[in-house]
Amino acid sequence: MPDVTVLHALLPADLPAPRVASLLARLPYARRLELESRDAAARSASLLGLELLCEGVLRLRGHALELARLSFPQDGKPVLDGGPWFSVSHTASRVAVALSERCDLGIDLEECHAARPDRAALQRWTATEATLKAVGLGVRHAHEVRIDEQFAIAQLRDRVLHLRTVDLGPGCVAYLATLEPIREVEVRKGIGDRG
Fold first, then answer.
1. pTM of the shown model
2. Closest to 151 (Cα-Cα) out of 108, 91, 186
3. Domains in the chain, start-ordered, CATH in brackets?
4. pLDDT tens per residue across span 162-190
């Protein structure tokens, strides 16, 4: 079994209404209300992330995820009671979820395009965001993250995190940050990928 599983999918233009309704109905009430207040694109990205999380838990544990076991702390990252650890990231066109039974982690992805010609700066930013997600801090703490020249180690306060690029296809930069060294990362398209 890999140390980390990453599932990713392209975002469809619209998630079908029955799919949206089914996912929303399974969420804790407060989270459902929050997602219902978002614009359609943001809601679709979050819901596709939840579908990928469900798929990942099924792969790791062999049983369906009860979305009611998710909690969404106001100033922290979402957690799943009883694990596994997970992290979700999305752009305007894709979503990725990283899951691990071994250690807490963070994933971030960004699109590469002509408006962002400096790939090294994009890599640094993506690695920084993955680091912040792994420890549950927001971007206002980005100035505290120190990344080595090889983009292999990040330091944040008294923590050392291990970085790794994740290949999600052309036009995308993705980094994974873990609180422990890891050996194997499995990357797969999720069944939620309709693209």
1. 0.92
2. 108
3. 4-189 (3.90.470.20)
4. 999 999 998 899 999 999 999 999 999 98
